[in-house]
Write a structure and sequence with these properties.
The termini are close together. 28% of the residues lie in helices and 31% in strands. It is α+β, with helices and mostly antiparallel strands. A hairpin with a 2-residue loop joins strand 8 and strand 9. Helix 1 runs antiparallel to helix 2.
């Protein structure tokens, strides 16, 4: 089953987070779905500071949902990016609208991971969660180049790669590849994982509550820890799990 909880930020008039399950795009909701035999489970987050973030995240997911397998998936995603940039340039205010995208494409031949930006995907291994995405952020880039002092001073949420942003090169690190099979996976937007550490999420996942309750606990923990951003958490679990 797929368990979704997504909420707008404390001071936001509209959420820039959006979720795609199978072919349905949603925001600011709680829902439970069956895992699609063929289809998507993804989260998109409009880039903070760029006007039109909510429109960008919904556009990316709505266009992704139209994929029918007749073209290569990565090519389809690149076309979505080209269309987003072209459409955004018609509106000067939203000319750099942008969004992250992280999630899974379920196919008869297996599962593919899709990722660009700083939303995250984790899979459960035993009692532990393993992050299987890399945050495309200035902070991570500075760490990778051994600029530790600069990393401590930078904006940790500033992303380096995404859909849109007015420049096709920002999609250069788009990742689309086969993913190992899993019994449980979690997707989070930065409104969650910047405020709830991995050990805490693991403890919640391993608790006795139902997965619907676990989504609520994770969201409340982020809010209690000061998150004012839009919040999305998705748990993908086999039917034999809670």
């Amino acid at each position: 089953m797929v368990y979704v909880m997504t909420r707008k930020g404390k001071h936001h008039s509209v959420s820039e987070d959006a979720v795609l399950v199978d072919r349905e795009v949603m925001s600011e909701t709680s829902a439970v779905f069956s895992v699609p035999d063929t289809g998507f489970v993804c989260a998109a987050d409009g880039v903070g500071g760029n006007s039109g973030g909510a429109d960008a995240s919904k556009f990316v997911l709505s266009e992704l949902a139209k994929w029918d397998g007749s073209v290569d998936l990565k090519s389809h995603l690149q076309k979505i990016n080209d269309d987003l940039i072209r459409n955004s340039k018609q509106d000067e205010i939203n000319s750099k609208m942008a969004a992250t995208l992280t999630g899974f494409c379920f196919e008869k031949g297996g599962i593919r991971l899709i990722h660009v930006g700083n939303s995250r995907a984790y899979i459960k291994q035993g009692r532990y969660l393993k992050q299987i995405t890399q945050d495309h952020t200035t902070y991570n880039w500075l760490l990778s180049t051994n600029q530790y002092e600069a990393a401590e001073l930078c904006n940790r949420n500033e992303i380096t790669n995404c859909f849109g942003g007015g420049d096709p090169i920002l999609l250069s690190k788009l990742y689309v590849d086969k993913c190992q099979p899993f019994t449980l996976a979690i997707l989070t937007s930065d409104g969650i994982h910047e405020y709830v550490d991995l050990d805490t999420i693991e403890d919640i996942i391993n608790s006795e509550e139902t997965f619907e309750e676990k989504c609520g606990i994770i969201v409340r923990k982020a809010l209690d820890n000061g998150s004012e951003d839009d919040i999305s958490v998705i748990i993908i679990a086999n039917d034999h799990d809670k």
